[in-house]
């Protein structure tokens, strides 16, 4: 039947017939008058692309032009046009599409919203950016919890949430000039595109020489996983070991934070995080660095606070919010209060050379807590609220007036024993107890808001993030828990572990936790290691591990600006680490601040209080009951920042581990 039909007589198979059909169509297209003037791309001035590149790259050079061409080529070949516009917005950072961002928010696509936002700003740029990223992370995990409990998503709540985001976007200085798309004449835009394409046509048809004058096709151009980090990777520049740089090194992972120290050699180890299966890199102790080593009192400014009492060890120490007074709690359940002059001028000029007054009211009262019946239950904790001090030493919680030292009230008669408490917004208190429970209570209404259960042993510390609106608890079970401060649901938890062994430490007590001023990073202090996590996910970002001679760690705290971490050890050393790199800046030895004749193996700092306004000033509470305030010499900007005038070198005695 097919061969009898004259039109089908030449048909043999599908492939050859389609080839003949294509040839026929080409002839028809060429003969079509309507299409004849559209078959050849118009030739226009080749200098347009160079002019465009010069506008984009003012320091225009041949290598820059080629990199840009490769990137544009890759960009156009990788992307389908549906999302090209928005990726172009992210890559060029010239326009923040608030409507596009709203679509992600209202549909609950939090990962995409975070990715789009991160192209224009990051969490450390300003408070507006920090709040936006924090809120995205918080909502992501709140909705994950809701999905686990099979609760429906609330579109109306997301729409209301976007209104808050919109205000932050409009006030954010990183985004303000990117909210309106620049007007451009359409014909001019079309002309630019045509000229670019005209410049490219010969390159697309022919082959191009590479650095070795070998011909390669455009499909062989290097590809980059994230164009924002591409320009320095496109050249096959060898690294220090002589290997070409892998393009994948430009990948911006969201699963971990990387603290890199280019001045230190690192040896890689593949030690998985207990929960997130990430890898770690260890900083070995064998690296010799020039670090500031302070041995003598003349090498720093130090002040022994006046004290005529013979109380026990200083177990708690805290500055007021303005830094005008300091409160200490001793192992014998007594308190001491030192006051500096309170006028504004003296506070601005204040340094450790200005000796404070050991305050004693006219009543001669002493602020003393109830003591636990069993000495082993004598766990001390306190908190400041204005001119009132909430304090406990294993017995009832006492409220003292800091003006008169009078006991205003007592409550929470054991059992259970209060082991930690902090103030929360809306006049709430969070109390941790030795039975592993946490109570959220309003003293004004005397109503309990929530009772939280998640630990298997006593609560050791509580920390609250205002920007995330979450409460984090630590326990003697080597566990951290994150709680949503709205519905008081448990968002996540994580057990302490060592990057070096992958195991939970034998001593399971997490002694202290503290939020960084960014309200995201969380410092966790264990006697054998210090860890940094990101809330609310508890993503494990870094770890400090001491040399055995310094064990145990007794305390650690952020400076008020969050730029350094102060660490005290039983060896008597106080170490100052850079927060971002975990580099050891400075070591202050016991001989630099302790009184001559008192130095012994039993003398060391138990607690550190960071001054709330002066990032380089700290107070140390010692085992002999004395308190010392120290800061760098007046000629120094900060701890460990001045170049050395001698040849002292000091080997790092802490290893640090940062996730990659």
Overview of the structural elements:
This protein is α+β, with helices and mostly antiparallel strands and 660 residues long. Among the domains are: 47-204, no CATH class; 294-340 and 355-373 and 546-640, no CATH class; 415-498 and 506-543, YVTN repeat-like/Quinoprotein amine dehydrogenase (Methylamine Dehydrogenase, Chain H, 7 Propeller), CATH 2.130.10.10. Helix content is 22%, strand content 28%. The protein is built from 12 helices and 36 strands. The strands form 9 sheets. A 7-stranded antiparallel β-sheet has the order 3-4-36-27-26-25-24, with no helix packed on it. It has a 5-stranded mixed β-sheet with strand order 6-31-30-29-28. Helix 3 (47-56) packs across helix 10 (186-205). The longest helix has 22 residues, at 127-148. The protein is elongated. Mean pLDDT is 75; it is low at 43-49, 56-61, 201-289, 344-349 and 643-660.
Supply the key terms:
660 residues, alpha+beta, Methylamine Dehydrogenase, Chain H, 7-stranded antiparallel sheet, 12 helices, elongated
Helix content: 10-25%
Overall pLDDT:
75
Indicate the low-confidence ranges by residue numbers: 43-49, 56-61, 201-289, 344-349, 643-660
Terminal residue distance? 70 Å
Number of strands: 36
Shape: elongated
User: Taking Cα atoms only, what radius of gyration do you get, to the nearest Å?
Assistant: 32 Å
Strand order of the largest sheet: 3-4-36-27-26-25-24
SS field, number of helical segments? 12
Beta-strand residue fraction: 25-35%
Largest sheet: 7 strands, antiparallel
Domain CTLH: 94-152
Biased composition (Low complexity): 246-265
Pfam families: TPR1-like_2nd, WD40
Protein name: CTLH domain-containing protein
């Amino acid at each position: 039947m097919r061969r009898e039909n004259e039109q089908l007589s030449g048909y043999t198979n599908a492939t050859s017939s389609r080839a003949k059909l294509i040839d026929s169509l080409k002839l028809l297209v060429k003969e079509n008058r309507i299409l004849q003037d559209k078959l050849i791309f118009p030739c226009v001035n080749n200098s347009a692309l160079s002019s465009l590149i010069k506008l984009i790259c003012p320091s225009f050079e041949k290598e820059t032009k080629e990199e840009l061409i490769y990137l544009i080529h890759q960009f156009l070949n990788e992307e389908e046009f549906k999302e090209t516009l928005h990726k172009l917005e992210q890559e060029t950072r010239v326009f923040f599409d608030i409507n596009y961002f709203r679509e992600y928010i209202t549909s609950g696509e939090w990962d995409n919203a975070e990715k789009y936002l991160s192209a224009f700003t990051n969490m450390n740029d300003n408070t507006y950016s920090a709040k936006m990223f924090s809120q995205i992370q918080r909502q992501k995990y709140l909705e994950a919890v809701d999905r686990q409990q099979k609760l429906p998503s609330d579109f109306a709540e997301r729409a209301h949430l976007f209104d808050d985001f919109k205000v932050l976007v409009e006030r954010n200085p990183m985004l303000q000039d990117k909210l309106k798309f620049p007007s451009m004449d359409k014909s001019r835009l079309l002309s630019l595109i045509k000229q670019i394409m005209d410049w490219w046509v010969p390159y697309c048809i022919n082959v191009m020489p590479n650095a070795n004058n070998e011909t390669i096709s455009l499909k062989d151009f290097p590809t980059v996983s994230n164009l924002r980090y591409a320009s320095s990777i496109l050249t096959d520049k060898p690294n220090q070991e002589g290997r070409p740089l892998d393009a994948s090194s430009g990948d911006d992972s969201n699963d971990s934070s990387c603290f890199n120290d280019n001045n230190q050699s690192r040896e890689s180890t593949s030690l998985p995080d207990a929960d997130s299966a990430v890898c770690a890199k260890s900083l070995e102790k064998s690296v010799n660095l020039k670090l500031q080593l302070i041995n003598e009192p003349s090498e720093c400014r130090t002040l022994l606070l006046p004290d005529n009492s013979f109380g026990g060890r200083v177990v708690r120490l805290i500055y007021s919010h303005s830094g005008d007074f300091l409160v200490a709690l001793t192992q014998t359940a007594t308190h001491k209060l030192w006051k500096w002059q309170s006028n504004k001028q003296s506070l601005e000029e204040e340094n450790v050379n200005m000796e404070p007054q050991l305050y004693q009211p006219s009543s001669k009262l002493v602020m003393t807590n109830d003591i636990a019946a069993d000495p082993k239950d004598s766990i001390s904790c306190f908190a400041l609220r204005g001119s009132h001090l909430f304090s406990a030493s294993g017995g009832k919680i006492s409220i003292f007036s800091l003006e008169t030292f009078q006991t205003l009230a007592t409550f929470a008669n054991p059992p259970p024993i209060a082991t930690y408490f902090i103030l929360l917004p809306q006049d709430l208190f969070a109390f941790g107890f030795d039975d592993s429970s946490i109570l959220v209570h309003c003293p004004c209404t005397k109503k309990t808001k929530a009772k939280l259960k998640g630990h298997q042993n006593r609560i050791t510390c509580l920390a609250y993030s205002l920007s995330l609106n979450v409460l984090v608890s630590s326990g003697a079970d080597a566990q951290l828990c994150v709680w949503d401060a709205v519905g008081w649901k448990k968002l996540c938890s994580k057990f302490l572990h060592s990057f070096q062994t992958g195991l939970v430490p034998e001593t399971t007590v997490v002694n202290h936790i503290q939020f960084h001023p960014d309200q995201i990073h969380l410092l966790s202090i264990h006697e054998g290691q210090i860890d940094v996590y990101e809330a609310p996910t508890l993503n494990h970002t870094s770890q400090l591990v001491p040399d055995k001679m310094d064990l145990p760690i007794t305390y650690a705290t952020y400076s008020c600006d969050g730029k350094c971490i102060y660490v005290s050890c039983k060896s008597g050393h106080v170490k100052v680490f850079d927060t971002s790199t975990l580099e050891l800046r400075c070591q202050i030895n016991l001989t630099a601040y302790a009184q001559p004749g008192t130095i012994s193996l039993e003398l060391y700092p138990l607690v550190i209080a960071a001054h709330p306004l002066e990032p380089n000033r700290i107070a140390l509470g010692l085992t002999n009951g004395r308190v010392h305030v120290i800061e760098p010499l007046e000629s120094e900007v900060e701890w460990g920042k001045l170049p050395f005038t001698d040849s002292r070198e000091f080997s790092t005695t802490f290893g640090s581990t940062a996730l990659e």
